[in-house]
Amino acid sequence: MFCSVNEQLILLVLAGYFMLLIGVSFLTGRKADNDSFYIGNRNSKWYLVAFGMIGASLSGVTFMSVPGAVGTGQLGYFQIVLGYLAGYLVIIQVLLPLYYRLQLTSIYAYLKERFGDRAHKSGAALFLLSRILGASFRLYLVAIVLDAFLLSHFGFPFWLTVTTTILLIWVYSFKGGIKTIVWTDTLQTACMLLSVIFSVWFIAGELDLNIWNIGSAVRESGYGKIFVWEWQPADSFFKYFISGMFITIVMTGLDQDMMQKNLSCKTLKESQKNMRWMSLSLLPVNLLFLILGALLYMYGTQNGWVEPQFDNPEQMNAGCQLLINGECFKKDALFAWLSLNAFPAWMGVVFILGLTAAAYSSADSALTALTTSFCLDILGKKDRGISTSLRYGVHAGFSILLIAVILVFKVVSNESVILELFTVAGYTYGPLLGMFAFGIISSRKVNDWFVPMICVVAPLLSYLLNKYDVYLFNGYQFGFELLLVNGLLTYGMLYLISKK
What we know:
The chain is mostly helical and 500 residues long. The chain has 2 domains: 7-416, Sodium/glucose cotransporter (Up-down Bundle); 427-500, no CATH class. The protein is 73% helix and 3% strand. The protein has a 3-stranded antiparallel β-sheet with strand order 1-2-3. A two-stranded antiparallel sheet has the order 4-5. The chain is globular, with a radius of gyration of 22 Å.
């Protein structure tokens, strides 16, 4: 349980923040129509899309987990970030030209044109499943922090915290959709980055560091290692780089949520320009998160609050990864605990604002993308054939569904089970990778009847391979590269049911 650091001040700041978001939505959604909701009238400024996508690419989970992961992985996560660049190059040169040439609103319409209706709906269903579970999991973690630290002090029950969280997203996104989100994500990305910058500045000052010697201090602290050149470990550079590349291709290039804003740019060239600048911006942004993590550990251990529990298997199996002030916590709790307990009150406000901005910048676009995909892919409606009332109803329906899933997570109250569900959601991207790759690389025709079965079998086989990898492959451990295996299995099975 977090201690109290001026809850009234934080509540006031959050209220002002959401009023600002609703004000932006009012200005951008006044003359919004279906074209505005789905693709922003194809009139979005590329630089706003690029900046806003930085926040959408991250999330509330990233906001807490990347700094926490420095304790065991040091700066090794940056190896994945380098792989992102290769993935974005594929999106820029291959996928964006395809989407713009076909003038797609939902990217899964490509699967219908290339394979058939069952492949189309299978791809959309995989996206819907992964996004519902993924968005719910991210919002669940943020709601727990807000509930435990802030709203429970005012007597608000957890269900009210969750309902209010989703309701606020619905209020500022239901009318303007992507046209609004391009602007709100710009605001939220700015808040998130300012929160991290202020945190780095404050901790560096507490450690008597300045901008010139932070790098050397991190290296000397033992948290500065980036590259692992052996190929066997799960955190090997080769595995991380390849994984980062394919994670970007599928979780950005093949994800309706991430691509919808890109497709709202005026032209293909502007969309490609947006993607180039955004991908380059992720390098310093992720490095900033990692440096923050190193500084948090240095500050926590120096003041006697933090004691890593890396060498105690019994405690780690019980979920104790860190001892913070004598209590067991996950690594993800490091940033939150120090901000709300060890730092001044204004830093607690900065943390909550940054966490909220990071969570909402990914959740609002997810809700809009879920509505878009369901209306266009599952219901089979054309862009202009969707009534406003139907779109509002679908948008509200997904809002209620997210609330229900988050409350189920709370009832389950078992972090390992919830994390397993989140992991399972990640397996859905493998079939998308395999289907799009087969459609682009091969000219063979596929028997569309078997595609839904392949979309189930490939993730299941991948899950079993991951579960028993040590026994099957003589000690080899799968990391993020399992995504590639999942895609290859899908590709191979599509080839078996295809003909020239």
